[in-house]
């Protein structure tokens, strides 16, 4: 009996975790190669051929290092047999405690909420690109094909309401794998089109220092010295956003089976995922910049216009939408789980909150429905969709999210938890090195936030809520 129990359950009494190196890698790639890849050509366009790729590689090393620190905080005390921390907040509570737990939770969940808004905007942009491309070709270029993004955001929201009813992370492995395949699909298409355009131009566009002062942007504004500074700062936020996945690292690690120790599997998965994504990012970002130069678009796959092969762009944009459906869920599941766990503890006697009802679905088996989960997750998706419709500025939102999440969640908390767990003494060489890394990343985050907010202010000057067309 004891042997059967150990085969079905882990050391914490929960059902055996079944995650592997490959499922963890697919979760990470799904989370990392998100809509952030689409803005990298624009980001390199602001920074230039020297600073752009250099900043991207530096971000990769920082993320790789701090992710390894964070993965060692999954278990408290002994990294192999110590008590598990199921969420990022649990890890902060076990290693640091006090007020910082509440601060961590607030930053993490606001960021996850923001990611849902950003992904809704990105998905609508890709849906519109498909529609406009087909419209343009059916009218043989006579119709400008202007349209509103609102209907597409609502459509994406309806899809997310359905997928949000998947109870937890462990039951989403198939969605992550599909989303990871889609992310490679549109990244390859973007890369291929960039190479094709460079070959057609017979030259590499761009400059060593980025966008030139006096350049007239597609929106009609002229880049001033101040705007170039803001844009450079915003580019840092865009690159930070493209790499941000530490926010859900612990939750991904909690799906892994052991032995080997979870942190060892996570370390390997992180190395593979960051190496693959950095190579993709450099290729997509650099080829996009080489193709368009100072006019590199905020969304790479909408920058090729409606030229042939338009069907290939359609395939890429469909892949983006499918990927974002999965990525939205990967990011939102920790927030869903937190609210539902807190509510179940507070209203433990409420059938509405804790009751599970079996519904038989033909060909799929039995689905357990929880009324609170259904209502709360639906309200969450509706709210994020409405905010996305109010602020449909892809680049600015991406920059703000990258700035908000990068320093606190990717650097500060992993560094401080590691110092606490390993009892690293103050003013030792290692302590000073870690604090210097944290301070440098704080400066980068502040600069990115300032640049992104400045971009929002500029956009709002010519924007009408719910009425903007493209």
UniProtKB/TrEMBL annotation:
Its main location: membrane. GO terms for molecular function: symporter activity. Residues 17-457 form the Amino acid transporter transmembrane domain. Keywords: Amino-acid transport, Cell membrane, Membrane, Symport, Transmembrane, Transmembrane helix, Transport. The keyword RNA-binding does not apply. The keyword Cell membrane applies. The chain crosses the membrane at residues 21-44, 50-70, 109-130, 173-195, 271-292, 312-339, 374-394, 400-419, 431-458. It is found in: Cell membrane. This is Amino acid transporter transmembrane domain-containing protein. GO terms for cellular component: plasma membrane. GO terms for biological process: amino acid transport. InterPro entries: AA_transpt_TM. It comes from the Eukaryota. Belongs to the amino acid/polyamine transporter 2 family. Amino acid/auxin permease (AAAP) (TC 2.A.18.2) subfamily.
């Amino acid at each position: 009996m004891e042997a059967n129990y150990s085969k079905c359950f882990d050391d914490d009494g929960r059902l055996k975790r079944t995650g592997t190196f490959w499922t963890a890698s697919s979760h990470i790639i799904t989370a990392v190669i998100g809509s952030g890849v689409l803005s990298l050509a624009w980001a390199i366009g602001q920074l230039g051929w020297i600073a752009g790729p250099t900043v991207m590689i530096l971000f990769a090393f920082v993320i790789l290092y701090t992710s390894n620190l964070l993965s060692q905080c999954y278990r408290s005390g002994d990294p192999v047999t110590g008590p598990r921390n199921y969420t990022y907040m649990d890890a902060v509570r076990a290693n640091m405690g006090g007020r910082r737990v509440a601060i961590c939770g607030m930053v993490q969940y606001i960021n996850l909420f923001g990611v849902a808004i950003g992904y809704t905007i990105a998905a609508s942009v890709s849906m519109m690109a498909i529609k406009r491309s087909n419209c343009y070709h059916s009218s043989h270029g006579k119709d400008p094909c202007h349209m509103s993004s609102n209907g597409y955001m609502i459509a994406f929201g309806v899809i997310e309401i359905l997928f949000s009813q998947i109870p937890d992370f462990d039951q989403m492995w198939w969605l992550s794998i599909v989303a990871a395949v889609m992310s490679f699909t549109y990244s390859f298409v973007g890369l291929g089109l960039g190479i094709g355009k460079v070959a057609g131009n017979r030259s590499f566009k761009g400059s060593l220092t980025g966008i030139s002062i006096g350049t007239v942007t597609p929106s009609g504004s002229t880049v001033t010295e101040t705007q170039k500074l803001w844009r450079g700062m915003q580019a840092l936020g865009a690159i930070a956003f493209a790499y941000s996945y530490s926010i859900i690292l612990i939750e991904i690690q909690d799906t892994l089976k052991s032995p080997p120790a979870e942190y060892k599997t996570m370390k390997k998965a992180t190395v593979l995922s960051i190496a693959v994504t950095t190579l993709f990012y450099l290729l997509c970002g650099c080829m996009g910049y080489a193709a368009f130069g100072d006019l590199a678009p905020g969304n790479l796959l909408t920058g090729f216009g409606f030229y042939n092969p338009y069907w290939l762009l359609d395939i890429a944009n469909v892949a983006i939408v499918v990927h974002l459906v999965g990525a939205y869920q990967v990011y939102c599941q920790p927030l869903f789980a937190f609210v539902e766990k807190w509510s179940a503890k507070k209203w433990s006697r409420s059938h509405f909150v804790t009751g599970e009802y079996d519904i038989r679905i033909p060909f799929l088996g039995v689905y357990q429905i929880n009324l609170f989960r259904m209502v709360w997750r639906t309200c969450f998706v509706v709210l994020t969709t409405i905010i996305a419709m109010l602020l449909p500025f892809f680049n600015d939102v991406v920059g703000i999210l990258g700035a908000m999440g990068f320093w606190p969640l990717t650097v500060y908390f992993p560094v401080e938890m590691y110092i606490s767990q390993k009892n690293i003494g103050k003013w030792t060489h290692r302590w000073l090195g870690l604090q210097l890394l944290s301070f440098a990343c704080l400066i980068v985050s502040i600069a990115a936030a300032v640049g992104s907010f400045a971009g929002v202010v500029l956009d709002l000057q010519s924007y009408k809520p719910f009425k903007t067309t493209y």
